[in-house]
Amino acid sequence: MSNSVLEEIMVKMLDLDMEGSKKIAQLVVEGDGTTNILDAVNAVANSLQIVGRRFQDGEWFLAELVYAGEIAKEVMNILSPYMKAGPSNTVGTVVVGTVAGDLHDLGKNIFISYAQSAGLNVIDLGIDVPTNKFISSVKEHRPLALGMSCLLTSTDAEIGKVIEALKRENLRDKVKVIVGGAALTEGFARDVGADAFAPDAVTGTDIIKKWGA
Amino acid sequence: MDFKQRILSAVNHEEPDRVPILGLIAEPATSNKILGRPPADMASMVMNPEMKGMIKDIINSGWKDLVYGNFSDALEAAVKMGFDANWMTYTSMEVIGNAEVEQGMHMHDITGRVWEMIGKEDGNIVMNYINGLCPTEEKWYAWAEEKGPFIDGFAKDAADFYTKLEDNYADWLLPIGYTSMSIFESSWQCMGFVNFIKCVYQKPDFIKDVIAFYTEFYLKYLEAIMQCDGDLVIGGDDLGQKTGPIMRPDLIEKLLGESYRRVSELIHRHNKKLIWHSCGNIYAFLDKFVEWGFDGVFTLEPTAGMELGKVREQVGHKLVLVGNLDVSYLLVKGTREEVESAVKQSIKDAARGGGYILSASHSHTSVDPTRLEWMIEAAHKYGKYPIAV
Q: Does residue A26 sit at the B interface (CB-CB below 8 Å)?
């Protein structure tokens, strides 16, 4: 695959050009080699890294972050069927869910989209996740990190319950805990015994990647 | 100086006798606690599967009376506490039967949004936005065609609500009308954020129609408050999230700038002032607020990094500042010293030259009335003009 095509993927994605990005991805899969597909996937990941940097630098905002994630999703839908299974190069696994009583998933889903593009293997438990489901998933997947999202102050106590349950199950020192969501603050995360607070998807992903380094 | 003169003086950037204090009381359990009434048990009924049918009938048949009663209690509680003003907002919702909802109940509002109503242990009821009724272009046009005709009726009910509350409470404090169902939020929330963003880029004409629809709705909603004698209106749209704007300010200008200018023009045509509510980190919008004609800004969410001193430094006295005591900790669990210190700092940062109204940064079910008392006491102690802190 020529460098120009890969560059074009990045240009189209960073122009937030959905149709243009999909068209280039289609050209890639109509080519003739698996390696080229992987190069294209890397170009998508690199584009999202740039999107993340622009977001953190205050050049781009939530809308651009979300739309770039949607473009990446569409492009990956085209590329993924043509990828051959190879050795995993994931940075680590993170189990993610919105706490019990809370049905919101926008922040969680933005995080998932961005974390996956950054090389994290994400296990999404969904919304309204009870404590025992968080615990059983940590036991099953032995993740690097457990991420809990919470939009509502009426449900933020659930985070403390999960952390207490991790302690009871002797899992607390085996998994890092990161929390985020509109209801939460750095101080809350500290008080409840989490390892980190993520004010946004990009920061959260960076923190987890550092833990895995 | 009475409460009205105090507030008006502040919004005209003159120094009143002391810093005015705005109450944001809205929740029934909080009002009951302040008024010394036994707690209503609506919250546990809302959560009780066997009671849901009855609650649904009560809410759907008596919505207008329930909202009026709620804010009547809130204003009475605010008077008792000694606030100079309190907000009041009229919304329209209908409970929808949904057997799959295990917790609380689901409601649809007049702008096409779905809310969950959850009862809390403290007796308050919390309403949280869940998603929209119109995830596709086709569904939105069908919805708008069906619901559009109801807007005039809603505006009439809203006008009755605001004027009746004003008639009953304006001798005791300034009831300030707030239009809580706003243009940007209604536009994206009726279809969900991801769908909205995709349409902004892929179907700009559709989004133009959506925003035009909610702009007309909002102007009619504001007209309802114009029936009141009050000189101040709270409008609003949440344009920020924790770390910055939800959308690029230039894109918001392109999509909504004209709508916001029309909002300001309407308010000013009636010789009233407009205080704009927005949660989140909104430094990037402050200059736009001035450009759009807003007279003040409200919320200034401290947990999103908003600091009164920095805001005053950025906008000077082009905007009245309203806020911003923290409701995540300070007014929930803070000590008396912490509350007093925060009030003192707020007054120091924003009150000189007028143009400042002290308040919590938001209404919140967990806000403790005792902390509100401490806030008011500290405002009386440090808020006398000329400011000496």
A: no
Interface test with B, best of A16, A62, A151, A186 (most B CBs within 10 A): A62
Cα-Cα end-to-end distance for chain A: 30
Range of the structural domain that residue A14 is part of? 3-82
**Interface membership of A16 toward B (CB under 8 Å):** yes
ipTM of the complex: 0.86
Same domain, A113 and A189: yes
Q: Are A45 and A119 in contact (CB under 8 A)?
A: yes
Cβ partners under 8 Å of residue B206, min gap 6 = B137, B140, B199
The CATH number given to whatever domain includes residue A8 is: 1.10.1240.10
d(CA B357, CA B347): 9
Domains of chain B, start order: 3-25+71-92+135-382 (3.20.20.210)
Q: Among the three residues A82, A102, A120, which one is the final residue of a domain in this structure? A: A82
Q: What are phi and psi of A92, to 5 degrees?
A: 160, 170
Tens digit of each residue's pLDDT (9 = 90 or more) over B331-340: 999 999 999 9
Q: Is the pLDDT of residue B99 over 50?
A: no
Strand-pairing partners, residue B244, are: B241
Contacts of A58 in chain B (CB under 8 A): 244
Are B126 and A58 an interchain contact pair (Cβ–Cβ within 8 Å)?
Answer: no
d(CA A85, CA A64): 31
CB pair distance less than 8 Å for A199 and B243: yes
B279 dihedral zone (left: phi>0; alpha: psi -120 to 50; beta): beta
pLDDT at B242: 83
* Distance between CA atoms of residues A167 and B108, nearest Å: 41
Residue A147 pairs in a beta bridge with: A96, A178
Are residues A165 and A205 part of one domain? yes
Say what the pTM is.
Answer: 0.87
How confident is residue B40, by pLDDT bands cut at 50, 70 and 90? low
Tokens of B258: 């004209």
Q: Which of B259, B192, B193 is nearest to B222 (CA)?
A: B259
Contacts of B178 (CB under 8 A, 6+ apart): B87, B88, B89, B233, B234, B235, B236, B277
B128 CB neighbours in chain A (<8 A) are 103-104, 151-152
CB pairs under 8 A between A and B: 70
**What is the per-residue pLDDT across B214-271, written as a single tens digit (0 to 9) for each?**
999 999 999 999 988 889 999 999 999 888 899 999 999 999 999 999 999 999 999 9
Tell me how close the Cα of A66 comes to any Cα of chain B, in angstroms: 7
Chain A positions in Cβ-Cβ contact with residue B126 (cut-off 8 Å)? 152, 154
What b/e sequence results for A101-131 when a residue is b if at least 16 CB atoms lie within 10 Å of its CB, and e otherwise? bbbbbbbbbbbbbbbbbbbbbbbbbebbbbb
Which structure tokens are listed for B50?
């066997």
Could you give the CA distance from residue A168 to residue B6 in angstroms, rounded to a whole number? 56
- Write the pLDDT tens digit of every residue in B166-191: 999 999 999 999 998 899 999 999 99
CB B28 within 8 A of CB B73: yes
Which amino acid type is present at position A179?
V
Domain boundary among A82, A110, A143: A82
> How many domains are there within chain A?
2
Place of tokens 């204090």: B21
Nearest to A187 among B197, B251, B329 (CB): B329
